[in-house]
What we know:
Elements: E1 9-14, H1 23-35, E2 40-43, H2 59-69, E3 74-77, E4 80-81, H3 87-100, E5 107-110, H4 128-149, E6 162-167, H5 172-178, E7 182-186, H6 191-204, E8 213-218, H7 225-229, E9 234-238, H8 245-254
Parallel strand pairs: 1-2, 1-9, 2-3, 4-5, 5-6, 6-7, 7-8, 8-9
Amino acid sequence: xxxxxxxxxxxxxxxxxxxxxxxxxxxxxxxxxxxxxxxxxxxxxxxxxxxxxxxxxxxxxxxxxxxxxxxxxxxxxxxxxxxxxxxxxxxxxxxxxxxxxxxxxxxxxxxxxxxxxxxxxxxxxxxxxxxxxxxxxxxxxxxxxxxxxxxxxxxxxxxxxxxxxxxxxxxxxxxxxxxxxxxxxxxxxxxxxxxxxxxxxxxxxxxxxxxxxxxxxxxxxxxxxxxxxxxxxxxxxxxxxxxxxxxxxxxxxxxxx
Length: 257
């Protein structure tokens, strides 16, 4: 008899913009999600967004507040572009947040998007090859800081899990993700593409590397079953760049179907 199918974990994927650019509200939503059985809360990490979005809250400050007021749910930024961050500062922030959350942090990383003018406007690196190089170098340095170059170390061992964003159908980000702990593919055309990614990742990873997460974001009314059957281990409910508080509360209260 085949083993029973493992339930994919369910999380909220919230843009802390406009109505949700309110840290106490984000904390209240996360606390209620934990009460209702959700497995995680993840925040978009941006400096600004395209109009009509105007208000943007800082993901890291909000996540720290969420960590202090919850006990079980996993949490993290999804995703942080390391090319516009000083990696030694990220090392301090991640270790501190992992300790504050008692080992519940997941670090989502990626190249970042140049579509929002948040790179060009602030003089950040725009060239995608250079951003990719800085991402790889940053991840390598992070592991060195976490391994003991900085104290205190993160609570999680051997390190904080890292999910890497990959924009479909590009393959190079999948190669990068296979070296870490999960992939967050963006703009997938359907579950079949996720199944292809699962196969490709499995071929690139060595036995004994540990578990690997396949993370997908779905709209609130999407059927999660085909995605879980395709191999998803995390299903994140995405409310888009202008989430409405009432809608988020409604989905949280519905619980996990």
